Amino acid sequence: MYLGIDIGSSSSKAVLLDVQGQIKGSAVVNVGTGSTGPKKVLDSVIQQAGIHIHDIRKTVVTGYGRMTYQDADKQITEISCHAKGVVYLVKNARTIIDVGGQDAKVIRLDQTGSVENFVMNDKCAAGTGRFLEVMARVLDCQVNELSHLAEKGHEGVSISSTCTVFAESEMISQLATGKPIEDIALGAHRSIAQRIVGLANRIGVSEEVVMTGGVALNESVVNAIEKEIGLPVVRVENPQVVGALGAALFARDLEK
Amino acid sequence: MDRVAELLEELKTIARNPKESVEIALRDTGKKGVGCFPIYAPEELIYAAGAIPFGMWGGPIKGNLSDRYLQTFCCSVMKANTEQALLKQYDILSAVLMTTFCDTLKCVMENWKVASPQLNIIPIVYPQNRKTPSGIQFFQEELTRVKKELEEKLNCRISESDIQRSIDFYDEYREKMNQYMEVVRGYPDTIDAVTRHLIIKASYFMDKKNYIQKMDELISELRKRQIETTGREKRIILSGLMAEPEELLRIFDENGFHVIGDDLAQESRQFREEGPSEGTWQSRMAKRIAQQDGCAFLYDAEKTRGHLLIQMKERYQADAIVLIQMKFCDPEEFDYPILKKELGEANTPLLYLEIEQQMDSPEQIRTRIQSFAEMLA
Fold first, then answer.
1. Of the residues B125, B158, B191, which one is the last residue of a structural domain?
2. Interatomic CA distance for residues B163 and A229, integer angstroms
3. Which of B54, B87, B189, B253 has its CA 20 to 30 A from that of B375?
4. CB contact under 8 A, A115 and B371
5. A231 SS3 class
6. Strand extents, DSSP E, B10-81
7. Per-residue model confidence (pLDDT) at position A32
8. Could you list the residue range(s) of the whole structural domain that residue B306 is in?
9. B349, B352, B367: residue with CB nearest A77
10. Is residue B370 located within the same domain as residue B252?
11. Cα separations (Å) of A73 from A28, A34, A76, A97, B14?
12. B362 shares its domain with B245
């Protein structure tokens, strides 16, 4: 078995692969680096696959918390791991939009599936999952209810895409003026999409475009991105574990 | 410890402790000190006045005193300099020569005069059209004015022959630095990215005469050694204002990069252009600035920086260019779209890093640099 573990800022993900490259376990725990997340997610995939920890032949760790994880054979960045994982799932992928809890990155791939260029967001949390969390708090709903709320919106209100803090203030102002929360949710989804697409345009977008990371679970954001870039966006199954899948594939390569 | 290691350690200590190093230089030489804002302060005039020019390139200091004078969109170098001025750390200097290469520098100068009048601010304005006869004439007159102000502030007389000798001396310094850049390429393990930078940086906090002696010895000792065949296979050229903090360069070292050359304002741009050896002192200094190309801070109608970087990449067989963008350094930011296009057309891998001099956590930068290493592998 080969383990890929992706320790992010707000969640930990793991994938177990067998020698043939079949996924035997995958899990997500919603706490990330510096927490019990890495241990919990490891326990979870081991249990799922019905194996013992000694059955793991190689481990590759990735993500923001990769430098502090001691039990891996190698650490590789999330840029390379996402590329590896996406190409395994979508052979003709050329652009990856990965939006996680606190960062967003866009990766351009060449025809062989190798990383050609990449761009990441700066320290600011605008255009990341954190923006959605702030939005859910203001609109008094759960993060996973946001997309459904936005779908009911008719006329999206304009919300700043520059800064999460500004956007929060604007949303509160819009609520105070009596704007329907569905329209505010729609506007906020467009805002995050504009921010992500702005990042993507810095290195150029070409088909096929694949979206990964936790924010890819939000259908309204994906739809808004499709509208902004004018191209279809492929959503893979379990978009949160693609980095861990790439890490597991790298772990398997270590024995080649 | 062998002589190379001793010299490296000595110069690194000087670079890492600017205030103490400046105090030692002033005490040991008995000279006066003049602070020089980045980038092309006419140090030759200060040296001709019998004083020592010291570089003012910010630092790791944080604080909120500078917020009284600077907006959030000012760069971290200016914030650090202003913070240090307000903490009176520059009071050991007899004057400060303030250049005007960006909007912040132009606007903050008057604030500095009010906030720290004891620093004896001397402004210097560089011509936009520095290559035209009228631009050269303007700059010659500006240099003459700066010389006069230096004489007043330092209470001395600077003769023409003093300045001519000082320019000759600075030509020698520039030649020595270019030799260092050439030699250092052969020893990437002894002189890694961090060391390479600190050795250059030490020059800003010493009497150049003392510095040149040490560099002369370092270069000759290095030349006695066998060229290092390094495991650092990824050869890069750094471009931008500066490559700090040290942690940034350490990440390049950790990821097996070899800094084969640079186009940094704090490093090679200071000495890569040697001026004419003949002419009046004003024309020698003005023409050197007129000749300098490929710098975001000097107006360049031909936009030669991208071409220069591509040439450097070919000359040194580099694998990639790393553009280090100091956050809010607007002259550099305006160059980026042009560079990106030109380097892209030349199929030159480019890593763009946005930095601040005071980075609490370099983890995002680490991911970018490591990803770039993985991309080039």
1. B158
2. 60
3. B189
4. yes
5. coil
6. 33-36, 52-55
7. 84
8. 232-377
9. B367
10. yes
11. 21, 20, 10, 27, 40
12. yes
Give the mean pLDDT of B79-100: 95
Residue A123 has what pLDDT?
A: 65
The answer to whether A116 contacts B371, with C-beta atoms less than 8 Å apart, is no
Residues A170 and A115 in one domain: yes
Q: Is residue B65 part of a domain?
A: yes
Contact A76 B374 (CB under 8 A): yes
Let me know whether A9 and A100 are in one domain. Answer: no
**Same domain assignment for residues B240 and B153:** no
Mean of the per-residue pLDDT values of chain B: 95
DSSP string, A47-100: HHHT--GGG--EEEEESTTGGG--S-SEE--HHHHHHHHHHHH-TT--EEEEE-
Reduced to 3 states, what is the DSSP secondary structure of residue A233? strand
Q: Which domain holds residue A100?
A: 92-235
- Entry pTM: 0.90
> What confidence tens digit (pLDDT) does each residue in A17-46 have?
999 999 999 999 988 888 899 999 999 999
Does B341 touch chain A if contact means CB atoms closer than 8 Å?
Answer: no
A135 and A70 within one domain = no
* Phi, psi dihedrals of residue B143, rounded to the nearest 5°: -65, -40
Of the residues A74, A77, A250, the best mutation for testing chain B's interface (the one with the most B CB atoms within 10 Å of its CB) is A77
Q: Which of B250, B374, B376 to mutate to test the interface with A (most CBs of A within 10 A)?
A: B374
Domain boundary among B158, B180, B197: B158
Task: Answer whether residue B324 shows pLDDT above 90.
Answer: yes
Q: pLDDT at residue B339 above 80?
A: yes
Same domain (yes/no): B240, B147: no
DSSP helix/strand/coil, B365 = helix
Domain count, chain B: 2
Total domain count for chain A?
Answer: 2
Q: CB pairs below 8 Å between A and B: how many?
A: 35
Token pair 């505010």 is found at A184
Does B377 share its domain with B236? yes
Start-to-end CA distance of chain B, whole Å, equals: 35
Q: What is the pLDDT of residues A64-78, one digit of tens each?
A: 899 999 999 999 999
8 Å CB contact of B364 and A123? yes
**Closest by alpha carbon to A5, among A31, A26, A30?**
A26
More confident residue, B364 or B134: B134
Q: Cβ–Cβ of B366/A114 closer than 8 Å?
A: no
Which of A118, A202, A250 is best to mutate for the B interface (most B CBs within 10 A)?
A: A118
Tokens 């059209």 label which residue? B129
CA distance A252 to A108: 24
Chain B residue numbers touching A76 (CB-CB < 8 A): 374
Structure tokens at B162: 């003093």
B228-273 pLDDT, tens digit each? 987 778 999 999 999 999 999 999 999 999 999 999 999 999 999 9
Q: Pick the range with the lowest mean pLDDT from B41-45, B126-130, B230-234.
A: B230-234
Q: Are residues A111 and A226 in the same domain?
A: yes
Residue A45 is part of a domain; what is its CATH number? 3.30.420.40
A120: chain B residues, CB-CB within 8 Å? 364, 367-368
- The minimal CB distance from B371 to the residues A64, A118, A122 is found for A118
For residue B89, count CB atoms less than 10 angstroms from its CB and return exposed for 0-12, middle for 13-18, buried for 19 or more: middle
C-alpha pair distances (Å), A157 with each of A112, A165, A178, B59, B174? 42, 17, 12, 44, 59
